[in-house]
């Protein structure tokens, strides 16, 4: 018996020893995939030595003799720090995720293969100027050299039991197309929603629901848009709608108006990017000052990679954010000009109604044409390849059907020749405002609000990216392009590109909302631009600045005052008083007026505003939602102003007939808000905004393997901020970077970024700087003193 016990114990000890050895081997293998930080390495193709100087946060200064050498070294560094991120990004836009991650990603691949971005990237590379091709090729060679130089392939591939595929020059353009997907990819779904609304609702109600401007808009040119009137009882009356529809249609489903192309990325309806530029007449230095905080889905590693690129000839010294997969700084400062972006939310997607010719083809201004079908082969890790037939037209792929069943093709700037280019890299050497504005206007990227300032003190706003020159059709709804004059006629060129240079106020701003009116707005279009509250709050803060310093900009970026929601707080107070709800009333009455983490009153107000808006939208669109139950309806961002009009004007004919009065409807919404805000809490006072607004910044692999979360993810933290204020924040969405900088005084600027520079969890840079971002502590814009030096030799 004792001998048996001894053998059992020995066996257990051996098993523990083997497990320890296996764990040690795994740890050593993962550690062996860490990048080279110091010493010397060979990089074929260099014309001379390149220095990679990293500071204590892992931010590199890459110094080389010419631009191709620096591009090659940038590719080397990106690959060693972020190759898995780069791989996912190119695969996401190309529809090639299933080949790496298995059958679960087939739906995402099928959605993306319709756009055939791999083929479009190859065609764009073939037609690119020789200098652009050379830049992408040098970068790709650097990427593959950096990957090869690792002792072990990146740890993600060890876990997936996969080998990384080499980087190709065209993959840089696929990374660029990923920006189109993320920033404009839901455009055709939004137009489908409008088409179905238009088919189901009377014209006046459709205009109110789909095209109401925000009364809080603060455009640069001061234009104001008149909101549509509420439809009269003779035009639309909810009392004449079948009451059974209100029960059968249910509540609005979660929004599907954006692609979720990153594995596991939760859908989001928030938008939040901000940028502005203050002229020298308002700054202490006399130089222009530019601020930018591009808001995107938060993930590990972060979207951006910080870098300073220094080239001897032509003389270049530029600092800012790079996008792993591309060889240039996308936003930052070069000592002469500084620039940053927000998504414009213009209309750059049109759905084309295909008029059939009776023989399986469709009509064009040049006569009938047959549909072309291309078979896309989708590889699947651990499964058989799948074939996806893609129907193509002269205008774009066939993507869906209109409300009346007509086939629809998708015309999108991302599909057009000339849409993508590397002109943005020319900003690295721009020497003044006019030159920078001209470069930005011709840049090949999804159309953005570019805010630019120069060392002489001048500022400007311009749409960066290509805009279609539309013919005679309504771009907000599907239209036939079979007649001459309809459709797109090339690109907007030259001075027709919307811009405002040297604004009379001395400053310019954008916040995803309407920036201009009149002809410029008609050129940009309305692709669902944001509510104007955030932009107005920024404008008013800028108007009060004198002798400004960078820290003044940080205060604006971190501004969490709930100025827009103040009116909703007053409304909720009145409703709770009428309902005799003393406990929630006390919380709402004593709210801080901010989206503060310790404030339960703010959470109640926010839930009330959300529920009233969603329920009002659900109520007015009930017939459309009943007609298309498979389509996801969600109130557009600006509909909150329509909801506010309804609860203040209280038209009886626009009230859900299940309620006897607007007071009853509002009391029900308030009760639901109190219940939802208090869910999971022991007491209402415990249900603070921070409990709802706790960030969860995850690595793609931890979403699939939760046991890896503690190792791979950033710490969960309650953070202030919300949609209607400059500090936009939600659990999975927020500022992907923050900076403010004066060109020529970069050493006085600051920079924030969630997560760290490295994508490797054993790197000292994996979380470096993250807490400064979360707490809003300023850190230097420029890299700090060199702590690690890597020398690359030819």
Describe the structure.
With 794 residues, the protein is an alpha+beta fold. It has a domain at 235-257 and 561-594 and 596-692. Helix content is 35%, strand content 18%. The protein has 25 helices and 30 strands. The longest helix has 30 residues, at 2-31. Mean pLDDT is 92; it is low at 252-268.
Beta-strand share of residues: 15-25%
Largest sheet entry: 11 strands, mixed
Helical content, roughly? 25-40%
> Termini distance?
69 Å
Give the spatial strand order of the biggest sheet: 1-30-2-3-7-8-9-10-18-19-23
Write down the Rg.
27 Å
Q: Assign an overall shape.
A: globular
Summarize model confidence as the mean pLDDT: 92
Question: What structural class do you assign from the helix and strand content?
Answer: alpha+beta
Instruction: Find the count of extended strands (DSSP E, 2+ residues).
Output: 30
Separate helix tally: 25
Low-confidence stretches: 252-268
How is the topology of this model organized?
Elements: H1 2-31, E1 39-42, E2 50-54, E3 60-64, H2 67-94, H3 98-101, H4 106-113, H5 117-127, H6 130-149, H7 155-160, H8 171-184, H9 187-200, H10 203-211, H11 244-248, E4 274-278, E5 289-293, E6 295-297, E7 305-311, E8 316-322, E9 329-333, E10 337-343, E11 349-353, E12 361-364, E13 367-370, E14 372-378, E15 386-392, E16 398-401, E17 407-412, H12 433-441, E18 448-454, E19 459-464, E20 468-470, E21 479-480, E22 488-491, E23 499-501, E24 507-510, H13 518-524, H14 533-543, H15 550-557, H16 566-579, H17 582-589, H18 600-620, H19 622-627, H20 639-649, H21 662-677, H22 689-692, E25 694-695, H23 700-704, H24 709-712, E26 717-718, E27 733-735, E28 738-741, E29 750-752, H25 770-775, E30 788-793
Parallel strand pairs: 1-30, 3-7, 11-21
Antiparallel strand pairs: 2-3, 2-30, 4-5, 4-24, 5-28, 6-27, 7-8, 8-9, 9-10, 10-18, 11-17, 12-13, 14-15, 16-17, 18-19, 19-23, 20-22, 25-26, 28-29
Helix pairs in contact: 2-6, 2-8, 5-8, 16-17, 16-21, 17-18, 18-20, 18-21
